Amino acid sequence: MTAAPGSILTAGLVKRYSESAHDALAPLDLEVAEGQRITLIGHNGSGKSTLIGLLAGMLEPTAGHATIGGHPVGSIPARAALSYLADQPVFYDDLSVWEHLEYVARLHGTVEWEQQAADLLEMVGLTDRADDLPSTFSRGLRQKAAICLAFVRPFDALVVDEPFVGLDRGGRDALLELLHRAHIDGATVLVATHELSTLAHTDRLIALRDGEVIHDGGVDDVDPDDLVSG
To answer: How would DSSP label each residue in 34-49?
Structure first.
């Protein structure tokens, strides 16, 4: 049976950074249906960023495998289906914000990208910085530029790692609105965050502790503060 375009599946997924180290991510079997909104929480070192990095194809698994829309993570079809918003975005040193947007949009075949790019810049408050180099920005401005890059291209699934760090109120509100729009458009959205206020905008809560899942379900029958303690 053909997998849904935005579905995420992991089977026995493990990440260990050295032979003697504790597993950063224990064997993980996870199934995310297309169009679900997932919030991933846990204390520092719980495995959130490791899982996001594996799904984005930025890390190689020690064991097991994962797919995006039925395609192995890191493959060209999986990268085409998934947009990744990192907690520490990286930019080309010699490209302006606008040039980054053009590059990403054209790479992924975005139609009429100029208007979409302009709208995104206005939403996050970067219109007057479009010709500047994001490599010179503060963390908050870099995050705003990265948000624009993540949303200027088409995607079936979106994975986001700690997106609210360094954002001002305007940037935070803009990101929440864009995440909502992505969900309405049918995309799968997985957000790893310490901002527990975002739980009001999620269908499913997954909590990790020491690389293992300690909760996978709704948000009404659990105290999220207990899941990120320890």
So the answer is: TT-EEEEE--TTSSHH
Is residue 203 a contact partner of residue 37, using CB atoms and an 8 Å limit?
A: yes
Tokens of 79: 């990268």
For the cut 60, the answer to whether the pLDDT of residue 127 exceeds it is: yes
| 132-147: pLDDT as tens digits | 999 999 999 999 999 9
Pairwise CA distance, residues 189 & 183, whole Å: 7
- DSSP string of 62-101, one letter each residue: SEEEEEETTEETTSHHHHHHEEEE-SS----TT--HHHHH
Spatial distance between the Cα atoms of 101 and 116, rounded to a whole number of angstroms:
10
Q: In the Cβ-directed half-sphere of 42, how many Cα atoms lie within 13 Å?
A: 26
Place of tokens 């690389």: 211
Which positions ≥6 away from 11 have C-beta within 8 Å? 29, 64, 65, 66
Domain positions in the chain are 8-89+155-227
* 75-91 pLDDT per residue, tens: 999 999 999 999 999 99
The alpha carbon dihedral of 85, 86, 87, 90 has a sign of negative
Residue 180 · residue 137 · CB < 8 Å: no
Predicted structure pTM score: 0.93
Q: Which two tokens stand for residue 117?
A: 């790019």
**Under CATH, domain 8-89+155-227 is a member of which superfamily?**
P-loop containing nucleotide triphosphate hydrolases (3.40.50.300)
